[in-house]
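RECORD TYPE: inverse folding
INPUT: structure tokens
STRUCTURE:
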């Protein structure tokens, strides 16, 4: 089965404000070993598929960002959404386009803002998932073995083992569970039956389209209208805004999961950066570009991000996030980094567009 890779690159990344803005969201920031996250996602494939079989779904406002980051991408392979409608319509559009080219093609769906190591183990898991999808026609989701009782991820309860592909077991999915509270997450971890939902998928194009026809036909009906001449810009905002997980996978009967053990990080906030970076001699984590510098005295455990000429100086502080980007400065404890989105919400309420 000849696969296509679909990269979902339309997110807003509000937890990475002020570096992540409407004009340049998180997936275009150089925080993956100095690389832009979107570029790192493509490079991780290591040429596994040719460029003509790579599709990127992004926002219309991000067209030039995608082109600058991925000059090799064929123009027809950039699917630019007129409005944000979550992942279900985006996945359906990509599958619709792939099926037009090759109805039986395999399809891998990746997020643009994950950091995964090592790449060869990642590719092996994708090949195993596609092999299962080709043979069984199942919808495949990949699950990360949890290392702690995380409350920020969705969980997959693993059912019976049904196959093995490339040395990786394949299990039925017993159920999906949305982000749990701490006590429930601890129960999931101790049971050994649950995985974090990685947001990585594999299936045949015809299989996922059949699932949309069964569970969310309005999206395919809209795409059919566009193919018949309707204006995408007018139709797209009318489609339901819903994740593919809840719209399709939680309702379909042929869903399977592959547990994977490689290092995976969805880089959900500034506090996640120490997990993907090497600290300096004082234990700080610097992400600097455009001539920015960091000097620290009696400071440790800080995440420092700076863009453009200028200096970040830290004295006598510990475990802070300090971000200087554009016309804004952010300072917060690392443990409060998830609350950065509340600043964005306040700016939106105040109509302070110059900071968004």
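DESIGNED SEQUENCE:
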């Amino acid at each position: 089965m000849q696969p296509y890779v679909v990269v979902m690159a339309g997110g807003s990344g509000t937890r990475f404000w002020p570096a992540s803005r409407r004009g340049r969201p998180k997936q275009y920031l150089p925080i993956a070993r100095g690389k832009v996250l979107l570029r790192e996602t493509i490079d991780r494939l290591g040429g596994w598929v040719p460029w003509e079989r790579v599709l990127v779904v992004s926002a219309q406002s991000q067209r030039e960002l995608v082109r600058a980051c991925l000059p090799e991408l064929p123009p027809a392979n950039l699917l630019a959404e007129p409005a944000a409608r979550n992942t279900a319509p985006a996945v359906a559009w990509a599958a619709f386009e792939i099926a037009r080219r090759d109805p039986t093609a395999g399809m891998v769906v990746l997020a643009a803002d994950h950091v995964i190591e090592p790449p060869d183990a990642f590719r092996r898991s994708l090949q195993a998932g596609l092999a299962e999808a080709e043979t069984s026609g199942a919808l495949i989701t990949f699950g990360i073995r949890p290392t702690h009782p995380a409350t920020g991820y969705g969980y997959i309860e693993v059912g019976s083992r049904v196959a093995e592909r490339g040395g990786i077991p394949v299990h039925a999915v017993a159920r999906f569970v949305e982000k749990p509270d701490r006590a429930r997450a601890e129960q999931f971890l101790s049971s050994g039956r649950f995985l974090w939902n990685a947001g990585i998928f594999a299936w045949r194009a015809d299989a996922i389209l059949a699932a949309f026809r069964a569970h969310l036909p309005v999206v395919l009906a809209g795409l059919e209208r566009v193919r018949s001449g309707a204006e995408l810009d007018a139709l797209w905002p009318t489609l339901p805004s819903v994740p593919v997980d809840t719209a399709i996978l939680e309702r379909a009967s042929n869903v399977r999961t592959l547990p994977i053990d490689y290092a995976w990080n969805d880089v959900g906030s500034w506090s996640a950066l120490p997990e993907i970076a090497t600290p300096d001699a004082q234990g700080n984590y610097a992400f600097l570009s455009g001539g920015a510098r960091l000097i620290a005295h009696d400071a440790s455990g800080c995440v420092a991000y700076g863009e453009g000429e200028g200096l970040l100086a830290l004295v006598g502080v510990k475990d802070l996030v300090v971000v200087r980007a554009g016309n804004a400065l952010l300072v917060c404890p690392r443990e409060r980094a998830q609350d950065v989105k509340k600043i964005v919400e306040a700016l939106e309420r105040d109509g302070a567009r110059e900071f968004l």
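NOTES: The chain is about 30% helix and 30% strand.
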